[in-house]
Structure formats: C-alpha cells, structure tokens
Amino acid sequence: MRFAALALLQTTRLTLRPSMPADAADFRALERDPEVMRYLNGGHPVDQEEADPDAPFLMPRGTEPHVWTARLAAGEAFVGWFCLWPEDDGLAELGYRLARAFWGRGLASEGAAALIAWGFTAAGYGRIVSTTMVVNQGSRRVMEKIGMTHTRTVPFTSGDPIPGSEQGDVWYELTRAAWQAGRGH
C-alpha cells in the first residue's frame, strides 16, 4: 500500500495540518503538563532532551511523517496534535494529545473523526485502532463517539506502574466497512 500524502484537514472548529519543526515548542509544552501526561507516564513532565528514546508513547518534534498539528480554525490557537500511525499496509493507530485548556469541548472527537475519514478515504486503511488505559474515561469516550468499538482489555506490561494501570489497557477499533455503514453508505 502506498501511503497518501498528509493533507490539510478542516473541521468546523479545527484546522489539522501536517506537523512541522515550528510546532515543536507547542508539543514540548504539552509534555510538560502533568495532567496531559497523567495516563502516559503517571503525570511526570517530560523534557525531550532528557527523555527516554524508547518511551512507550509518541513525543512529536514536528518532523514525524504521520502527525498533524491541530489549531483552532478561528484564531489559530494551538489545540494539540493527532496522529494516524501506519502499523502495516491496511492498519493504522490513532493517537491524539490536547492541551488541557481544550479538554471537554468535543475537539478531540472532532479532530479524530476527521483523521479517521482521511484514513479510510485517502490513505486506504481497512482498519484503525487506538488504545488507552482502562481508567482514562475521557479518551475512551472519544473513541466511542467516533464509532470505535472496544475489542479487548490487556494487562499492564510496561515498566513503571501508573496509578490505575493495574486495570490494564483497552483497545478499540473501527473498520472501513463499519465506518461506511455508520455514515449511511
């Protein structure tokens, strides 16, 4: 499968554009917020220069080929980032991280839905997955709102335990056929 070039995606309230090095300061600010990092590393601010290169979560620098920067369509304020990371020819993993000031407004669902649509139509994925901790109810709601279905719960296997990690991680997925059926196609 050839991967489609990242496109500028516009929603009602967001502009998602391929990330660039100029976004790195905004990305670093997200990683320094303990609440943003709560379900990734237990809420420890991350300094990219000292970060573990093998960390189990994405820390974009603005040079990654599958990361979009999200900004408000009106005013261009930095909202966060989204990614659709190819796992194999027909499968990608959805990820996102938003600044705390934008939580609870439906922006994660709006951006994720746009990326899902792009993934199935332009990139040709047959299946998109996403994962989070069982206790991360906010992220789980986003996945459910965009039509993803819980497929499995797996035990926590990483290094340092995070509060709530004993409950494990959940995996969600959406197939192109289910996405099309949900859109009335």
UniProtKB/TrEMBL annotation:
Calcium found in the keyword field: no
GO molecular function: acyltransferase activity, transferring groups other than amino-acyl groups
Name of this protein: RimJ/RimL family protein N-acetyltransferase
InterPro entries: Acyl_CoA_acyltransferase (IPR016181), GNAT_dom (IPR000182), N-acetyltransferase (IPR051531)
Domain N-acetyltransferase: 14-177
PROSITE patterns, sorted: GNAT
Keywords associated with the record: Transferase
Gene3D superfamilies: 3.40.630.30
